[in-house]
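Quick board copy: two proteins, each given as sequence then tokens.
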Amino acid sequence: MWHFLGACASAAQVAQTNAATANNKADKSLGIWDEDGNNVYHKKSGNVGIGKTFASVLNNKLEVNGNINIPTNSPFRINNEALNYTHLAGTPPVSSKWTNSTITTTGPIDPTITTTTTTNDIYYNIGNVGIGKTSGINNRLEVGGNMNIPSGSTFRINDEPLSYTDLEGTPPVSSKWTNATDPIDPTITTNDIYYSVFSTLLTPTT
């Protein structure tokens, strides 16, 4: 019996101690935070640590020891502005010189209604472009290295396949030989060749 009463008394003391501790924490919390509707304000002039141990050094108004997650469409803001390069220390990276091209189409019913779509094609029309070069770029495109065109892809000038008429200088003399045609079907060219231009045969003189 006395054992039972002693155990009850011990349990009551533990509960009382826990309640007192909880009340003390609540009082401290009430002394630190103010509420205004759903907003909570920190009363003290010190700093706040989240995930930091008691008595650890807090050098900033808010220090978080752990990840900070910002849900989609909730931008991180500084001075009520979305975070941007002007808020960051150091020199911002140079923005791309290239611009995506666009296609503008008119409505099938009302031609005054236009739609502009951004494509995956890019362009640069301010100066010249160098690939593999850092200086001496005197033409619209200069490549300091090999340029490969895969099989089936033609090099084009004015949207036409490259031909002799696009090249400077005198084109080489074409072969004097001609492929023979099939004797039955003259539309078929064979691998036989012939030379049918008559000329004077030169012989050595004595």
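And the next:
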Amino acid sequence: MQGRVVHALIRREVDVYRAQGLPEEALNLLDNTLRSNPALPEAVKAGFQAQMRQLQAEISGDLPGDQAAVSDEQIEVIRRGWDGSDTIEDHLECAVCLHALGRCEDALAEFAIAAAKGLSLNRILPQLADCLARAFSPPAVSEETARLAGTILPNPARDTVFLFKLVMAELMAGDGHPEHAAALTRRMVVAGAVPERYQARLRTLAERSIGVAACSGRSSLRSRLKAWLRRACARG
């Protein structure tokens, strides 16, 4: 039993090194363990050797991007390491790293936790928009934006949620995600009444979407968008 506990602790220490971006230290730990314990059970040896091969591939850059960058296990090691003492900045830093690594859904979850702990949304609005656009397809982005709004906003009232969607669409439009911006804008236009204070901004955004539709030859969509926008603003 004692041997199993020691082996489990070694694996845990290896995971901690990897989560901290120290694969060389993890590799050295495994190598030293194998060299100093020639009588290890064959199954344990094989497991350590497999980990060593993966670490060597990480260090040389031979792994696919997601594997080389970060694994689900490594993320969990980071979170366990906080041990209840996690701060806003811990979750923000984790979210920023996950975003940079392309783990956008995981990043959104960390941004949401940071916001729930008191982080100002103004600090992360561009990152939220980019993560939404990268994580979800244009047909799904409106529903996912609404879901995120319900989670991340301190007061998810109708006008507040509408403004959040509007800001997300504006940022997507200006940051290389025109199809996501157009899909989100169309959903806002057809959903119902537009608050009066946001009508001008939505009209500007919708005109950009209409322009995209016109350039793509979808004249019927362009006409419907104009009609929907007039009715929605009239109901606001």
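Board note added afterward: Confidence is low (pLDDT under 50) at residues 63-69, 213-218.
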